[in-house]
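Following up on my earlier thread - several people asked me to post the actual chain instead of describing it. Fair enough. Here it is, all 323 residues.
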Amino acid sequence: MPDDTKIISLSDAELTALKFLGPDAAQGVIDFTQAVRDVPQYLDWVTVFQLGCLSAHLKYHQSAPPSPTSPMSSEVTLLSQGSESTAADEDYISPFERKYFYHGVSDDPPPLFQRSDVKQRPYPIPEERPQQRYSAIPVKTAHTANHPILKNKLWKESVAPEITALLKEEIRGIRVSTVLPVRFSAADEEGKDVFDDHIVLWISVHPNTTKETSCRDANAPILAIFAKYDIHDVAVHWIDGAMESLAGPPQEMMPVARDTNPTHWIRRALTATLGVPLAAQEMADDDSQGSLGIYFHRGTDKHGKKSREVMAITNKPPLDPRK
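Reply from S.P.:
Thanks for posting it. Predicted structure:
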């Protein structure tokens, strides 16, 4: 059944099969389902996905929330019920938060896997939501960390190597893809970026290789490394980082020919002789290809300073030095 199916359109049998009614349903979900039917003019927008979030939440939090008695009460706001984390399980991340935590970071933002500050920084829901039919989802943007202590030199020479060594310990069972310090911002009502007062160590792991508990257990040692350098305004976030293969089959570029071949100079720019052919896998059918170029300074000038002349190697003829 599609996630966007409206609860109001489902029969008792369908709701029972989804465990929104019947003996297998949580009492809070049953009460909410009944509220949707009692006041459809206010709650006809509730979908299978949203009620599923509440059901999953109550699975881990056995004390059910109060039954909704008014269509405008805060308890009726499904998104708040589906995304709150309580002291009963401070590491629990609701399906709603997992899906929408990085909303706005990209066109297809990654789902949140785990984070160290679930309890300290609950996923925000606007306070004015009782007066609105829908809750606003924060729109986030990722920026460079820009930290007064964690400068580039300290990160590269000290902090990053220690964290990398920790994550490579076989006993931890973590397969890291990338590690990057960032600072997030969220847009205010006027669309301006409001920066977080803390930085985030953004770690991606290879999909289906790392347990969520392994990430959680690594949070404290990672934060201890930061604390050693007097950096305390930091959190650790984990995501799945899918690797994208780049492919450029040699047969799709022209083969190299000797200079005795009449087509040598014509085909030269279409071979891989002077560069590394690259092509995104999903663009291979369109024969969209490119080449990795290597650029380097020629050396030093007569004063011993870095030369302003740059050389380049590509799959085109070598470029002349340019100042």
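The longest strand covers residues 176-187. That should answer part of your original question.
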